Amino acid sequence: MITIIGLGAADQLPPIAAELRHLPWYARTQHHPALAGVVLAGTFDAVLDTPVVAQQIVTQLLALPSDVVYLVPGHPLLADASVRLLCAQAPLQFTLAASFFPNEIWNRAVGVMPTTAGVQYCDALDLLPQGDARDSWATFHSKFPYAHPVAPLPVHPGSAAWLTNVHSVHVLQQVVLQLQQAYVPSHPVAVVHGDGHVQHGTLIDATVLVREFPVTLYLAAAEPLANQRSADGIAYVITRLLGPGGCPWDHEQTPQSLRRTLLEETYEAIDALDRGDDASLLEELGDVLLNILMQAEMARQAGRFSMGDVYTQVTAKFIRRHPHVFGDVSAADSEAVLQNWYRIKQSEGGSDTPKSPLAGVPLALPALTATMALLNKSKRHGVTITDPGASPLTADQLGAQLFDLATHAMLHDIDAEAALREVNARYRRRVDALFARDQHLQGQTQELWHDADRDA
Question: Does 364 map to a domain?
Answer without folding.
Answer: yes
